[in-house]
Design goal:
Strand content: under 5%
Order of helices and strands: HHHHHHEEHHHHH
Number of strands: 2
Distance between the termini: 29 Å
Structural class: mainly alpha
Helix content: over 70%
Shape: globular
Strand order of the largest sheet: 1-2
Number of helices: 11
């Protein structure tokens, strides 16, 4: 079982790093559905996996100037506040055996994000700057290797992005995931960032969000060292591989991959929730 947990972690870290979802988005379904591990322990392991994915990939993305530190840090207030509230509510949810409704709700959120994402599968275009762009200096430039050109972009609608980040953080605490799915949607669709920047910035933010929730989960006894440690080791390996390949891929394949993964996970969440009712 240790080797299976390690392999699961590698796969989760690879995909989480490559898409900005965070490794926990695959760790949680795998541990609960394949290994029959209780949801609370799987959530605790998932949070550590999210931290590992972010820590492993973020350094590479920052060095390549793909992560926008200013935008990420400006949105962390919403994610950390939401993560703290969500983690505190998690204890009540687990004790009340209401996890099924959380599965269904999260699945619906993921499928909704797919419908929004598919509207943006065409080539990305930089939006017009607004008041938040100028006030917070939400601008950046990065070099796109496949396109062989520097791309300049700006972030808009910061207030709406902060609101979505708060919801993403709450889901992180409740479900034990890194909330990367909603973060990427907020950065891409709401704030108008390029796909590579939204993915890299999401990876940068996921670790901070998950760390807040993980501290509460540890106090509640929901983190089992053997399970979480083995999965986290695999996630680190997979995240490094994913981050290495990420900068060599074009933007559109990442968008398609993101959409497919989110659709599959959304359906899985809903099916699992209905089964638990």
């Amino acid at each position: 079982m240790t080797w299976l947990l390690l392999i699961t972690g590698i796969a989760a870290g690879f995909l989480g790093s490559l898409t900005g979802l965070g490794g926990a988005i695959l760790v949680l379904p795998a541990l609960t559905l394949l290994f029959k591990i209780p949801f609370s322990y799987a959530a605790g392991a998932g949070l550590l996996a999210a931290i590992a994915t972010s820590s492993s990939a973020a350094a590479i993305y920052v060095r390549e100037r793909l992560s926008n530190i200013r935008i990420g840090m400006s949105l962390e207030a919403g994610t950390t506040l939401g993560a703290l509230v969500g983690a505190l509510l998690a204890a009540l949810v687990y004790r009340s055996h209401l996890e099924s409704w959380l599965f269904i709700l999260f699945g619906l959120v993921l499928l909704t994000s797919v419908t929004q994402r598919t509207r943006h599968l065409a080539h990305w275009h930089s939006p017009q700057p607004d008041g938040s762009t100028e006030l917070l200096q939400l601008r950046g430039t990065y070099y796109d290797a496949p396109e062989r050109m520097h791309i300049t972009y700006c972030g808009v609608r910061w207030g709406w992005g902060e609101l979505v980040m708060c919801v993403a953080g709450m889901l992180s605490g409740l479900l034990g995931v890194g909330s990367g799915a909603l973060q990427v949607v907020a950065l891409d669709n709401v704030m108008g960032l390029p796909p590579k920047v939204s993915t890299a910035t999401s990876n940068f933010m996921v670790g901070v969000t998950a760390a807040v929730s993980a501290a509460v989960y540890w106090q509640l006894g929901y983190i089992q060292p053997h399970i979480a440690g083995t999965v986290t080791l695999g996630v680190v390996i997979g995240a490094l591989i994913g981050a290495y390949l990420f900068k060599r891929l074009g933007g559109n394949p990442l968008r398609v991959l993101f959409t497919v993964v989110i659709a599959i996970l959304g359906i899985q969440m809903i099916v699992r929730g209905v089964h638990l009712l």
